[in-house]
Structure formats: structure tokens, C-alpha cells
Records
---
Amino acid sequence: MDWDDLRIFLAVARGESLSAAGRVLKLDPATVGRRISKLEEATGAPLFARSPQGYGLTDAGARLLVHAEDAEQAVTRGTEALAGTTGGLSGQVRIGAPDGCANFLLPRVCAHIAREHPEIELQIVALPRIINLSKREADLAIAVSPPTTGRLTVQKITDYTLHLAATEEYLASHPPIEGPEDLRAHPVVGYIPDMIFDKELDYLSEIGADKVTLGSNSVSVQLGFLREGGGIGIAHDFALPFAPNLRKVLADRISLTRTFYLVRHAGDARIERMSRVAEMVLGGLKAEVARLEALT
């Protein structure tokens, strides 16, 4: 079994279809299918269960996946070792993050890393859901809940705070808010309830708000609703400097604390480039949250 066979196997396992794997590998799907069939003949076991929904790993395929990922990491480490170390970083690193972090924190952090290391290629994937590292949707992921399964390493980055916020104009033209019970008389901005992908994002149920008048699965859109005077809602403190017309409401009564975690593949800790980028992202995010929260 050679690395090229494993490379094709990994692409199908992650893409769950021949066409998705073909796009990654720049091969015709029929060629990918022939290579998978040949690999299954060589191993003497079916590696995928074929269905109209795609290619799912069998038990044998799941066992091979662990070793294929180890081989992938070994190839990467070997490539970097042969390239030598010059102090600068190069290559592509994809960072997955919830859109609040992706929009308000990561751009400054990544821009700083890119200035220090001009050969690096940094990509930010902003998705309103949990990033799937096992399918290599990203090399690093920022999460608001630490994952409990998978061959992953998890590091706490930093805590961050959130408060109710609204515009001065909105507050001046609507009934006064003296306590959480007064929120019932106001339009509330927040997540679409059935699209909350992590329990840590269910802010409104925590403060007793039972109806979302203006909803979105995007933090950036929610902030836009608030900036336009659409109502009152929970906002990240680190996002408030980007919306100077907002002010905190009931700050002494309602204050939420959440945590960012850095998640990556366990084997990537042995790859120098990935470890150095992870260290810079972790330190940069911690400093950026502190900087922006100090402005509010």
C-alpha cells in the first residue's frame, strides 16, 4: 500500500463522494472510483458503503482512516524537514471559526501573521456551524464548546463577555428597560432558534427572552439589526467597537461569559508549521479580545 493510494482514500473519506474527491485531487471521478476498487481488492475488505447519499466508511475503512491520517502527517513532516527551516513560514493554513470570531477578531490577527511571514497563505472559513476537522474543512478550528470526541487537541484561548445592547435612538423612543422582565415589551434580535448550532450560543433563553423578532444565524447580521435600531439583543463586547452607536443595556444585571477554544488534529502538534501558526493564532486572539473589550 503506497501513499498515493492512501491519499485517494482520504479524499473520498472526507468528501463522501467520488466527485468531491475528484475535485480535490484534480482527477476524474471514474478514475477515483477505479483506484478505490483496486485498493479494496488489495486490502481484501470493503472500505466504503455505497449508497445514493454517497460513500460512507465501513468498519474496515474507519480502521484504515486512522493509519492513513498518520501517514499524511508523516509525509507533511518529512516535506517540511527536507525544506529546511529559515525562520519564516510558508504554505497554506485554513482556519475555521464561528462568524463573530471570523469577522471581528481573526482578520487583524491573520493580517499580523501574514506581515511577519509573507510566504504563508492564511484562509478564514466563517461558518454558522461546527467546523468538521475530520473532513479537513480546516486545519485549525475556533470553537465555543470543547469537542469530546475525535483525535483532537483542545486548548483554551480566552474568555469573552457579552451584554445586551441597543442604539441610543432606539432606547429613547421605546419603553424604559429597568430589568429583564421589561424585554417582553421590545423587539428582540438574536439567533434563529432552530439554527443554534451550539448550546453556548443560546443566549436569549438564558436571560428569559422567549421570542426573536429579528433573527439570523449570523452574528454580523444580528449586529446590523441592532445598529439599525431594530431592537435590543445580545452582542459580543469585542464587536461593540465596530458599532459605536450601540450602548450596553442592564450591564450591571446581565453579563454573559463564554470561552473560545483552539481545536486541531492531535498529530498536527508534531508539524512545526502548524504548531507555530496555532501558537500565533492563540496568542493573537487572546490579545485581540482583550484590546477590543477594553474599548467598551
---
Amino acid sequence: MELVNLCKSYHVGDMDVPILKSVDLRVAQGEFVAIMGPSGSGKSTLMNMIGCLDRPNCGQVLVMGKDVNTLSDPELAKLRGMEIGFVFQNFNLVPRLTTLQNVELPTYANKKAGIDARKKAKELVKMVGLEERMNYKPSEMSGGQQQRVAIARALINDPSLILADEPTGNLDSVTGNDIMEIFSDLHRKGRTIVMITHDPELAEYADRVVNIRDGIIVSN
């Protein structure tokens, strides 16, 4: 994943408000990168750019060598579904679905040739330690268990990049450390991870820390 001279602004009233200013960032395959910055620094907008959830005003976002600006909306949706696994602070599970169904959900729109979605979902649920809760719904599980489901869901399409936005923000410190150990294990197995966080202790799990302030990367 690479950002080249990236700029992003939003139109507010009669003004264009710049959020990201000439950002350059490259994440190599297999890296674990933490992005840190104070509130209002632009890290959420940066996450949206990396996750192909929004398009830049200038510059390039390259994912697996593909320039996001050249893709149609359906092509961009497919890229997100196949190449990026999302883990959010608020879990974003579907309340009426079971653990297994939530993990399986991304395969409905993005099927890879030869994948047995149900079999792989079961394997991932076991991997995150929830084999006994495959048929539980989110309301029947703790926050830490829900985040484990979210991690399994993020892996179901075998993405090139895992993007985690404050993945322990709604968890106590002990449960948060358990979640970070899962990310560390995924990293040891060769996964590429970009994590947005405000917590210096969590950033220590990463290979590299990128600091952003006022829309500019100040250390990389």
C-alpha cells in the first residue's frame, strides 16, 4: 500500500478545509505499522484513504499496485472486499447473525475461486478461540469476544492488508492485550497490518510508528 503526495479536504459551508497535506506513506508486505496522532490530526481521514473508503483530492492511493482514482465505484468496492480486512473499534457485527454467520458474511459479495466459506469460517472462529461460541449472537458475548469475531471476519477473504481502527478502544486493558496478541500472532505469520491508535503502549506492538499532526506526517 502506498500513498503518494496525497491531499484531502472537505467542503464546509463556503470553505474547503484541508485535512491531509502532501502525505507520502508506504507499507511493505508483512509490515505492522501503527499510525498515531492527537484528535483532529487527520488519522481517521488517513484511515479512510488507506481503506479506500474515500478518494483523495490530489495524489495517489495505490493498493496492490492499483491506483484507486482510476477505479469505478464497483471496482473499488471489489478491491476493498478482496484486499482489505477491516477491524473497527465498535466491532460492527450484525446483531441478528451468529458468530459463524458474521464471519462468513464478507464471502457473500466477494467469493474467491475454490473457497469453502463455511469451512474456512469455522477454522477462523477456532483460531480466535471461540469454537464454543459459534452459534452465539453478539448480544450473548463480551466485547473482547465480539472483537475476536471481527478479526476472524476480517480474515475470511484472505486480504492483503488488515486495517484496524482503535481495535481495543472499547475494551479493558487485559482484554485489549489479548486482542493485541492475536494481531502479533497474525503479524508473525506474515500478515500486513496497519493500526490506528492513540495509545503508545499498543503502538509498541508494531514494527514502525507513523506520527501525524495537523494533516502532515511528522515522523515515519
---
Amino acid sequence: MDNYLTTNRANWNARVPIHVDSDFYDVDSFKANGRSVLRPFEVAEVGDVSGRRLVHLQCHLGLDTLSWARLGAEVTGLDFSDAAIDQARAIAADCGIPARFVTADVYDAVGALGETYDIIYTGLGALVWLPELTHWAEVAAALLKPGGFLYLSEFHPFPQVLDEETGTMVTYDYFDRGPHVWEEPYTYTGGRLIESYTSVQFQHGIGDVVSSLAAAGLRVDFLHEHDHTLFRRFPTMSGDRTGYRLPEGTPRIPLMYSLRASAG
């Protein structure tokens, strides 16, 4: 636990060259074709971003960040991986998109950014890297202009309690927050890590997220749960990267969620 940040930063720095070259991110087509990697429900729920200042916390390579810029936002991305931020800056330059990218841990974002924003965006798979959400929510509140909002889309914690094969039996403890230490030589893009493949992750329930935002003085406008996800979470699922679902006729469970919380 004492070294979680150092361990995770090394892990993500090692992932960066693999991710940049992967078919999963397909950086070349992102630069060439002007495409967006945002999910349709995200664009619909956030609404018009034209002329609005948006910061993407835990932005990795910045493809989501730059996708918001292509929709008209003035964007900043922040990530603790210096290797990821170097790539994000290079991709932005190759795309001709004005964007600011800053290297910092999310808990240090207020001082590192020195600005406030209309919109905070944080995307899928971000919260598992944070040991606690109280400070995270306080950072979000401090970064928002009056009337601004945080928008979060995340993988739902409920599937984490189910068995890996069928997704039908409760096997794991929903209230086990971690830390969980993983030794994974492959990333989610399929590439193999030859070093720094240890990571430390944490689980957060829906109540943890909502309560932390409320305690920071933000007003939760909505919490939407979704019956699809972006990878084959269980072998019985079918679909593609736009959405994997359980077989038709199977009782549905929440697989992702999205939330908006506004500043006063």
C-alpha cells in the first residue's frame, strides 16, 4: 500500500508503448480520420461542449480528451504517467488539436492545473486506481467553476462479485475494497509486458462514489446504470467494442454506470 503510486506509475509507463501500437487504440486511424472514441451515451449525457473548458482526469493517451476537443471543447488532460502524457502531447500535435496535457497524480490536480473548469470528465476504468474517493471528490469540487459539473462513466462494481465463467454466482465480497495486488503480464490490449507488470487496485461501491461527491458539496443530477459493457466480461457475452451484453433471455445486470454531479 505504501508504494501503490510508484508501482502503478511504473506499470502504466510500461503499458504506454504497447497501447500506442495496439489495434485496440488504433492511434493511426484516430489521427488520420478525425474519429471520436467517446461512447454515444457519454456524448448525449454531457451535452453540447462547444466553447466550454473541460478537464479529463486520468486521461492516459488523451484520445478521449481530444475527442471532446473535436466536439468543440477547450481541453486539458491530466495523468500520473509521464510516458502517457508525452504521447498525448504528440498525438495532439499530429492531429493539429490545441490541448494542454499535465503530468500529475489526480490527488494533486488542483495545484498542478491551477485553473477551474466548466466540465470534469473521468472515464472508464479510472477509479480502481484510487485508494479513497473522499479526496478525489474534494479535488473535483475545487476544480469546478460555479455551475460546472463532473461527469463520470465507469464500469459497474456489481459484476466484480460474480464468478468469472458464467457471471451467475456470487463469489467475491462486494465490500472488499482492497488493496488488491495483481501480477498481470498482459494488458487489456493483448500486449505483453516484460517489466513492471505488478499493479495495485481498489474497489469502490456505488454508495462510496455518491457519498463522496455529496460530502464534497456537489449535487448528484443523475446516476444511470447500463446493461452493456465494452469488453467480454463473461464468456457468455456477445457483441463488439460498441457493446457486449449477456445472452438474450438472461436476467440483466448493471455492467456500466454514468453519473453527473454539479457545483452550486
---
Amino acid sequence: MTLNRRGFLIATPLVLAGCATNATVPLLPATAPPTADPHYLSMYAAVPGEPFPVDAIDLSRIVDPKYLRREVAYAGSERPGTVVVDPNEKFAYLVLEQGRAIRYGVGVGKVESFNFQGEAVIAWKQKWPRWTPTQDMIGRDPERYGPLRNGLAGGPRNPLGPRALYLHRNGRDTLYRLHGTIEPWTIGTKVSSGCIRLLNQDIIDLYDRVPEGSKAVVLPIKSQAVA
């Protein structure tokens, strides 16, 4: 995968951010993943030692195999330690040394205006974070989000999952996060209210690899060609 971010640093309004969805579980997967591969079975097994359950991912039903975590060749220009999100391909990359990166599948905003673009700093990391719907989310769906305006504590029902990385720009919270999910079947889709969601095992892996102060880059959405 070759990424080219030349000329993309576009400031966009920081509105409509959020991390919830109404997605439903598909009955059948689009592609059968490598369910018998011990490497992936171990990678996506239940995570011990957590205050709340982090269940194993059922790879036979809910994840296209291309979105499973792997190390790949990387030809982008970002420095090692940078997190690069490509919402077009629905991947996040942790840039490594010597032209390599760890690639994670992600779910992104369901409409283009929901997506953050440009550079940010991972200013804060949180385990089992509290989730609070934004005012935009409450305004769009007051019946659903209004009762949660004071927030939801971390736990198995929290849409942020077991970890969250908070994106700031110019010292201010953008309201966008990289986080886990209680809907693993949505990875590889346009589903969220703007945040970048990863499988819970993947956000735990990324959380452990990147320190606070790390750079994050979210590439712009490519315009769809008009016939």
C-alpha cells in the first residue's frame, strides 16, 4: 500500500464528531476469514486481566480477512511512530522503521462530513474511557442520545470499547478518537459518527505501542467520480 499525503493538510470544521452507530449484525460474512490460522486465533483471542470482558473475535462470521492486523510494506513519508488513517481504504497504519508499518482495519464516519482530516496529536490515552455524546449527536437524535448527555462509564456497553486515543489540534480536543468497538462486524465499513474504530484487540495493541504526544494523520476522503 502506497500512501501519498502531498497537499492534503486541509482544515475542516470540527463538528458532528461522535462514536456511536445503529449498525446491525450481518447474517453472513462477505469473505470467509482464516479461522484455522493459529496466528490470528491467538491475536484475536479473549484478552485476560481486564476489568471488563474483552471477548474473542469470531473471525468466521464478522471480519473480512484483509482488515486483520498485519505488518506490511509502507512507502509513505511520515516518520516512524506516526499513526496514519486512510478512511478511503479503511486502514490505520502505525509507521515503523525501514519502510514497514503495522496495518489495522478500521470503521470510519458514515458520511464524509463526519470525518476528521489532517494532522493531530494523540494528547491523551485512556483505558476503559467514559463516553459522552456530542451536542451534535444529541441534536440529531435526542430520543436516543438525550438520556446519555451526562455520559456513560467505561464498561462492556460503552461504544468506545477498552481503549481510546484522543486527537487534539492546536492544544484543543477535536472530539475525535481512535477507539475500540462493541460492534466488531462494522470494521471495514462507513459506520460511525466520525471517530475511527478498531477491533478491541487492535486498539489495545495500538494503545500499548504509541505514547501520548504521538503524531496522527487522517488522510482526506477522495471525491467520488461523477458519471
